[in-house]
């Protein structure tokens, strides 16, 4: 049975994550207030950011960039997309 949370990004009750995505306060905040759907959307965007910006996630500068984008996407106004990005047509 899935755990239900009030997703602050979607503004609705939705399925939550099964466990915090990483240890610490920020991971717990995500676990308590971000739905599994939104987390998956973030993972997809993170993959695009890594590829388009040619990031190396274990480098401190790149790790910090991704952390900032994650906070903006999950809790703020949204992450930035790479220059020239055109979303797929629905």
Query: Helix coverage percent of residues?
Result: 40-55%
Please identify the top-level CATH class: Mainly Alpha
Strand/helix succession:
EEHHH
Low-pLDDT residue spans: none
Instruction: Compute the average pLDDT.
Output: 89
Count of DSSP strands:
2
Helix tally equals 3
Strand proportion = 5-15%
Q: Could you describe the largest sheet, including whether it forms a barrel?
A: 2 strands, antiparallel
User: What's the architecture, going by CATH?
Assistant: Orthogonal Bundle
End-to-end span in angstroms?
32 Å
Which structural class should the secondary elements be placed in? mainly alpha
- At the fold tier of CATH, the topology name is YggX-like
Number of domain modules: 1
Radius of gyration: 14 Å
Shape: globular
CATH homology group: Fe(II) trafficking protein YggX
Strand arrangement within the widest β-sheet reads 1-2
Description:
The chain is mainly alpha-helical. It has one domain (4-75): YggX-like. Helix content is 47%, strand content 9%. The protein is built from three helices and two strands. It has helices spanning 25-33, 36-52, 60-75, and strands at 4-7, 12-15. It has a two-stranded antiparallel ribbon with strand order 1-2. The longest helix has 17 residues, at 36-52. The model has no long low-confidence stretch (mean pLDDT 89).
Topology:
Elements: E1 4-7, E2 12-15, H1 25-33, H2 36-52, H3 60-75
Antiparallel strand pairs: 1-2
Helix pairs in contact: 2-3
Structural key phrases:
90 residues; mainly alpha; YggX-like; two-stranded antiparallel sheet; 3 helices; 2 strands; 9% strand; globular
């Amino acid at each position: 049975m899935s755990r239900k949370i009030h997703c602050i990004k979607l503004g609705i009750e939705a399925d939550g994550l099964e466990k915090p995505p990483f240890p610490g306060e920020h991971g717990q905040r995500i676990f308590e207030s971000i739905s599994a759907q939104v987390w998956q959307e973030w993972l997809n965007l993170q993959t695009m950011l890594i590829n388009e910006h040619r990031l190396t996630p274990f480098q401190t500068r790149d790790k910090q960039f991704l952390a900032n984008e994650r906070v903006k996407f999950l809790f703020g106004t949204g992450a930035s997309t790479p220059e020239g990005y055109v979303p797929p047509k629905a």
